[in-house]
Design a protein that fits this description.
Elements (H helix, E strand, L loop, with lengths): L3 H10 L10 E3 L17 E5 L2 E5 L4 E5 L5 E4 L9 E5 L2 E6 L2 E5 L3 H4 L13 H9 L6 H6 L9 H10 L13 H23 L23 E5 L4 E5 L14
Antiparallel strand pairs: 1-6, 2-3, 3-4, 4-8, 5-7, 6-7, 9-10
The structure holds a DNA duplex (14 and 14 nucleotides).
DNA sequence: AGTAGTGTTCGGCC
DNA sequence: TGGCCGAACACTAC
């Protein structure tokens, strides 16, 4: 389900509920009492990376879909929703997600410049954070939500392939122009992901993720569980450059 | 039909 | 104190 672009699709899909009053809230979440939301008006839907934010007057409900989460709009399935919001003319059902109540103003909670899909995204800020973390691996850097909020494992693999950078590089050994490309393509690929996901053609467009062969060199991709995050990483050992002084994984 | 994975948090253990 | 690791969560596409 997740990765930032999917949350953008959800945010667009629920716009009709903006400004509406929650007639009844229920669900199995233990992080808040759903009744707390009864009769409250939704002032806005926002997102930060993979976080989906349901904003009320003074409080915000944070939804994170983790690996298996899902949602249905004006539909239900057999499972009992973690959180269900019912409106005059429809309902939003959220399954298998982490729910959290935010009582502080969200501008104090979130660094909007870190969200790759936000108009407030600031690539220079991301590059500065990368420079501050020279010992971080490239594959971990892209998954770091404080730097690239919204980037997930698919986007990580595709961005590193696009920019010809080996996932095992230490950030400190990657040339400046490549760090700039990394931040640019994190955004570009996220918007490509969004477009392809809407067209139901996302998988067809994968060049590296889950692939067996490099489309540039026609040699086998390496598949390794890499980095602190220990996530599936697909890369071409020929066209994705490993810069000097790196320890090959 | 079983397995692995678009993710994060938490607690235990050095 | 803190970093690392595995478990938990809970669904579904392949």
């Amino acid at each position: 389900m997740p990765e930032g672009p999917t949350i953008i699709i959800l945010k667009e899909a629920v716009q009709a509920f903006k400004g509406q009053k929650v007639l009844r809230a229920e669900g199995t979440t233990k992080k808040l009492d759903p009744a707390l939301l009864n009769n409250r008006v939704i002032t806005d839907f926002k997102s930060w990376g993979k976080h989906f934010l349901i904003c009320f007057d003074t409080i915000t409900v944070r939804i994170h879909f983790m690996l298996f989460g899902s949602y249905l709009i004006n539909e239900r399935k057999a499972a009992i929703p973690r959180l269900s919001l019912q409106f005059d003319d429809g309902e939003l059902n959220l399954y298998a997600c982490a729910v959290q109540l935010i009582e502080k103003p969200i501008d104090e909670v979130y660094d909007w410049t870190a969200d790759v899909m936000s108009p407030a995204w600031d690539g220079n800020s991301a590059i500065r954070k990368l420079r501050e973390n020279p010992a971080m691996l490239a594959c971990d850097a892209l998954l770091n939500q404080e730097i690239f909020a919204g980037v997930g494992n698919i986007i990580k693999n595709e961005v590193l392939f696009r920019i010809h950078v080996h996932p095992g590089n230490l950030v400190g050994n990657i040339p400046e122009n490549k760090l700039a490309e990394m931040t640019e393509e994190a955004v570009n690929y996220s918007f490509d992901f969004l477009r392809w996901k809407k067209e139901f053609t996302l998988k067809k467009h994968w060049l590296a993720h889950t692939k067996k062969t490099c489309p540039r060199d026609h040699i086998p991709f390496h598949k390794e569980y890499m980095g602190k995050t220990n996530r599936r990483t697909f890369y071409c050992p020929v066209c994705q450059e490993l810069y000097q002084d790196n320890e090959a994984p």
